[in-house]
């Protein structure tokens, strides 16, 4: 028996003797051009043999095309054996992951985490804003004898929105039409982080206070002195954190004036001016929030998702500015936060204790004796420094300290992870923040240890508005919508498609996503199978549906009745379209990559779509077909085009149509699955089936979600991580929230 | 306690948006073209005591019981009698007296009402201080960081036509800042915060070095970069501190003065010192100094007067006790003016000839002539300082001349030759001439 075979037999006793040896074949026929480990050989084939073809596809390819110019050398079983060897040893992503285990990178806080952590640390010294079940603002109505009295209360009631018009059915009996006042109290829950503008429209006296601890502070909008009873608009903007409720106090005064009315409008980030919507208002108050407005440079997105993996001068300056801003915000209310008063003899002691508590909450664990010394005691003991300055120094040092900025430093003195690390990990993963009181209590009691304890806590944390805000942002990231900020189209081609429609579409998409994610079954599959779209009267009119009766958004069928959840949501169809026309290529690329999990290489030669180059009588499908007919293009466009074409029934603003350029739409084509099966795709419902059934789609969803939550590659948590999570998803009836809780709980640092 | 947000709103921008190491003041080396001129409008409320105000000898301030403390500035002073606020329209006289004082234009009708008269709103035009500020800010050689500073002393925390005299335009009142700590923050806050921050960089550096030791080699690079950036920042801050040395060092404020009525004298000193300091560092060339407000009820316990100022001002002439108190109150205001003028005179003009008073005009005005009649005639007006070149060293008497013409004179003296100001028909005759 030849020695080689003897050796092989020892190693692989299960291999039949007759089976071809893939490794040997590779060494003989392939390695001269591809290198010993598929790394490539200069002047031969210098690209490394790494890719995402299935084993079947690779086998076929080798059988047919390899080795170059001697294609008959390796065929049939030999091709199969060598393909199996290549696939398992270095070609497949799995093989690569084994060859080059991915490590978890050292990360600093991302911009979002940084901002929210500061706000929440300061908030932990106050009550956390809580928005209960009741919605609207508490309205108090008065008649006015004199300008400044507050007698003659007429009624106190819950108003859905703060608005008034004397000449309409206001329901306030006995009101003096020329002399009355109203004030509203409650809180506002911003859905996302960004700059919000508000405007008050009234001919009367108006004032609005946002995020003030008491209304004696500075009004956010001050129009208390009216001007000739003439209608006027007063506008102001501020930066708010998504999911962090802020207090609202609004005052209105009509005094010896004929006209009496008030409207309030807002413009949320990505939105258009619209009446203040009821769903963000709550009669429960909120304590003041310390919101950092310092601009941060964009976080590194080179891995396809944003994370704090790099630092720069701009970043370190932003860290310093944020620390200074936070310190000044804290000093606005230092006595309240440190629970003392300006004339208390123990004020210095209270400040010092505050600094120690602050540092401990920022580092998410009790201070070590050394930290207590460097971050607090030594600063307060500095000769010639008063305690107020010492407090500022201590806070600034804490907020620029690596123990705050780098989550992976959240370990105990021995360098081990403990329950504090777990709490910090969960808060960062689910909220982009620091542990709250409840998490701290659990740690103190030693109740954050078992997988069940941790998983239960994850479920509790998912009920917090911060989790919603983080999840909402995930969907925009997963669907590549965060990079598509401007959806404007050619107004001549699409009259009526204005900023209001765009803002409504965004609301509609958010409502749909929230509906799916936060419902009982939280079913991933429903993201693709829903035939209804959330429509308000304006959208219903534009998309030709029956308008909802009560003027709000309702989940309604569209006239075509062929919609398939995200695939056909007009916001997404619009985002992936040209200015005047659809773009099957954009739709195909983004949807196949993000949702269906297809791997697409960058185009071999970048060709720009120039509409003017084509015969003007062609349909978009015909143009794209002509543009991509080249064999090199079709490697990927055989995947891209069928997806894009299947959505050709929807124009560039997502309206249903039956013809393009006066020719009937043809949406059918053959799509090649990752397993090289050809399937017929006719329309959106076929795409939905793929998203629901294809493991590639599931894994794409898991991967993106994991990146958004953890900001590390999935494989850095072990090669089996993806399989494990995929199993969780399938076994839980595709429960999205369960998947989130599992991701958070199963990545607790050990 | 100073409010960071108020501060940011007042600036109109987030300070955090500024580059970290910005040469904030950096005024020392700026070349000044032509002669530097400044103007400060000082306001005190509720009218004066005419019998004790107007000097019996027009050439001698010592012949006025109220103004005698200003005698040291006789040569650089001028008293104007017969100036009248003739702007009519909605609003009671206090309201119009206040909100038309520097605008010379009517109030909008509105929803704010005092005891009587029709309700009114804000002034319908820009005020002269803001007009002059805009004029100076337009020109690069006269432009300053703030342009103007609106300083308040014991101004209540309320925005209405009785509390505002400065207007950026129609319906745009400018709030005076009445908290010296907030003022200090506005003027020097950023550099102070950064100074505090710089003082921790050393500890931060050692903290970073310490944790970096525990890291795997692959992760050390990031921390090394971080350490390097902190070190760089430290160096830049040190360099910028040297560069930004002020002509006049930032004043030290007594840190324990609360914003209470009884602390008004200390607060007044602090605010005036800050205003002079800011002007010495050329942060602004226009200032307003507003004591209390129209209808102000300050209780001047520090003068042994326990009644509210406005109530006292309603007392008839024959109530001698009340008149004596009112005289004392107005003497106190005159002393404030004397302090302001004196302090300016003590301070050499930065980068120029003489002292700061030689380049500054202080205009002391009131919203009424007399409290118990609510007259808008004979508004007690005193001008001190060489900034305008207007002062003649004596009293000038007019008969009910519209104060719009005085506002024009002020603008003209600052090089801003406007043909009229406020209500146009009240400007007939043009700027007042003094000779």
SSE succession of chain B: HEHEHEEHEEEHHHHEHHEEEH
Helix content, binned percent of chain A:
40-55%
Rg from Cα of chain B: 24 Å
What structural class is derived from the secondary structure elements of chain B?
alpha/beta
Residue runs with pLDDT of under 50 for 5 or more positions of chain B: 1-32
Beta-strand segment tally of chain B: 11
Shape of chain B: elongated
* Cα gyration radius of chain A (Å): 31 Å
| CATH first level of the domain at 37-175 and 283-339 and 355-427 in chain B | Alpha Beta
Task: Work out the strand percent of chain B.
Answer: 5-15%
Assembly state of the chains shown: heterodimer
> What is the count of DSSP helices of chain A, taking H or I runs of 4+ residues?
27
- The total number of structural domains of chain A is 5
Determine the N-to-C terminus distance of chain B: 48 Å
Q: How is the CATH topology of the domain at 37-175 and 283-339 and 355-427 in chain B named?
A: Alkaline Phosphatase, subunit A
Q: How many strands, which pairing sense, and closed or not: the largest β-sheet of chain A?
A: 7 strands, antiparallel
Order of adjacent strands in the largest pleated sheet of chain B: 5-8-1-9-10-2-11
Low-confidence stretches of chain A: 4-16
Beta-strand portion of chain A reads 5-15%
